[in-house]
Amino acid sequence: MASTEKMSHPRGLYTLFFTEMWERFSYYGMRALLVLYLTTEYARGGFGMDRASALEIYGIFTGLVYLTPIIGGALADRILGQRRAIYIGGFLMAFGQFALAGSHAFAADEALRQWMFHMGLGLLIVGNGFFKPNISTIVGALYTDNDPRKDSAFTIFYMGINLGAFLSPIICGTLGEQVGWMWGFGSAGVGMLLATVWLYVEEPKLEGRGMPPGREGVRLGAADFGTIAAFVAGGVATVYGFLALQDAISEDAMSLALKVVGAIAVLGIAYIIYNGTSGGEQWSRVGAILIFSIANIFFWSGFEQAGGTFNLFAAEETNRVVFGYEIAASLFQSINALAIFIFAPMFASLWVNLATRNMNPSTPAKFGLGLTLLALGFVVMSFASFAAEGEGLISPMWLIGVYVLHTFGELCISPIGLSMVTKLAPPKIVSVMMGLWFASMALANYLAGIMESLLHSIAPDMNLFVFLTITAAVGAALLFALTPLLRKLMRGIH
After folding, report:
1. How many Cα atoms occupy the beta-carbon half-sphere of 61 within 13 Å?
2. What does the pLDDT look like over 330-389, one tens digit per residue?
3. Homologous superfamily of domain range 11-248
4. pTM confidence score
5. Nearest-angstrom CA–CA distance, 331 and 282
6. How many angstroms from the chain centroid is the CA of residue 120?
7. How far, CA to CA in Å, does 481 sit from each of 246, 247, 368?
8. What is the pLDDT of residue 1?
9. Where are the alpha helices (DSSP H) in 357-429?
């Protein structure tokens, strides 16, 4: 392959880039509004919930969003193929956004409003399970396992995620808060429909990737869209049935039922992995994915402080007056997405250029570097928290510096992790393993939410950011120490 060919990427990458951009526009637009919508008083169109109840709903929702990709990945691997799964997820999430919009439009009918709100969240959870793992899997399928462009491709793909994440609070958030909640959620639904339309128009550029098992066509046919419609109807019916069951039985019975279903699901996923993995080489690589998943929990449980403790720090301890105008604390949340959009091309180019010189760090080394940068960010945050102990407000540059350092760490771990799963997972269960990767992020998000209260119970005098500095540094040290073992487990995959 010529040098210029090595540096270029398949056209299908940019098809997936914009599909993911619009999907993330939809998701992050909804996420920017959800807690605000729940806590806004009823007279202003919200639900009037207290902070704790709203955050509990938000936490359950985000956790389930990261768990359902396991099921969606399994169905794609065995039955649907990745393309059909993406269309199913896209339509379900669009319906979910429009249901949330309807929960504001029909605010006069309290029962209908509650039903539409819960239906909207349910459809988003189920739809994300079909969409999220499978689009990442197709990105990986565009390249061979040891293609030096693969990490670069996932970094470019990651830019699409963050471009959508940057634009959505500006558009959906502004419409939702200043025009009406219905318009904010509705615009997120339009973004989701744009993602599915774009994929349909650009589908030939995928060159047969992501088709159902046993088929290698360029496009899906009429029969495929009949299957998509059937699964979309099934997804809606599933959410509807769950809501009806929730209303019909007691809370204790529902809790027990969910535990039983969870246990069955864990056993089922274990069986799928066992059945889809053969030979010492594949088992070795699955073991490497599991170790990387633990490192992923270390990283994201620290990184996701951005939406909690960092947000509170911005609101309570940071001087937000710029040219005589006080900016919103939530505006700091856009720094991460903006930094990724600026620096992701540099990282993408860096990995490829290092590969041409045989200096590209291995995946374990990149993970260790990411955790090191996370720890450095918390060092800065620790000094910022000490500086804020007086009565005065501190400079916003502290938070900006932390967000940029954490963004560098994210670029060493998140796109590299997506690439790693597609390289190491056994071919029969690649989407299932992608789902498990997202499940590790679900646990990390949960830990991020309880970290402050957990630390208060075990070491009430310890500064949270000092604690997170130590845990991130320990995680980095473990990754660097385990690098020789992990490279051995990866069995020749760089």
Report:
1. 21
2. 677 778 888 988 888 888 788 888 888 888 888 899 999 999 999 999 999 999 999 888
3. MFS general substrate transporter like domains (1.20.1250.20)
4. 0.75
5. 45
6. 19
7. 48, 52, 9
8. 42
9. 363-387, 397-424
